[in-house]
Amino acid sequence: MSNTRWLAVLAVSLMSLANVAAAQGISWGDLSDAQQRILAGQAERWADLEPERQQQIARGAQRWLAMNSGERTEATERFRRWAALSDGQRRAIRERYEAYQRLAPGDRERIMNAYSRFQRMPPERRLELQERFRDLTPAQRRSLQDQRMQRLQDRRLQRAPTDRAPAPRR
């Protein structure tokens, strides 16, 4: 068997093995001692969790262990705010996040840059903008959004390569 073929067979076998391991999840005993301490409240029902959920929780515990106390305080506050949201509010946030993920990378970058500019504004200016937005009617908000989308499309058209030949020089 040639080396290339052997490597291909090995790669497929390893991927299959990884898929089987992922489908089986993580046993409680495979978690580190530190992860088990953090997840002690999950111990009795750990085996009943879906494998994907086990992996997600284990990764979360690992991230928690890597945080300093300030980061843990911030994460706890974010979780507290998330838990206080209604199901409808959480669903709306997830839908906005999914829509954001579907955007082109350049559009996501523009949004992040605008958010960063907003965060750098003095608190009084941010509050003023938030109040102005809050006072808009739904129709006015839609109009603003439509204007932003039109500007994005205009920018895309300006950057898009053209199939036309350049105009002859005189």
| Beta content | under 5%
Radius of gyration using CA atoms only: 25 Å
In terms of quaternary structure, the protein is: single chain
Helicity level: over 70%
Largest sheet: none
Helix run count:
8
H/E element order: HHHHHHHH
Structure class: mainly alpha
Q: Average the pLDDT over all residues and give the rounded result.
A: 85
Number of strands: 0
Question: What is the straight-line distance between the termini?
Answer: 66 Å
Q: What are the low-pLDDT stretches, counting only 5+ consecutive residues below 50?
A: none
Global morphology = extended
Protein architecture, described:
The structure is a single chain. The relative contact order is 0.04. The longest helix has 22 residues, at about 5-25. The protein has helices spanning about 5-25, 35-40, 50-65, 70-85, 85-100, 105-120, 125-135, 140-160. Helix content is about 75%, strand content about 0%. The protein is extended and about 60 Å long. The chain has a domain at about 120-155. The protein is mostly helical. The chain starts with a helix and ends in an 11-residue tail after the last helix.
Properties at a glance:
single chain; 170 residues; extended
Overview in brief:
The chain has 170 residues and is mainly alpha-helical. It has 8 helices and no strands.
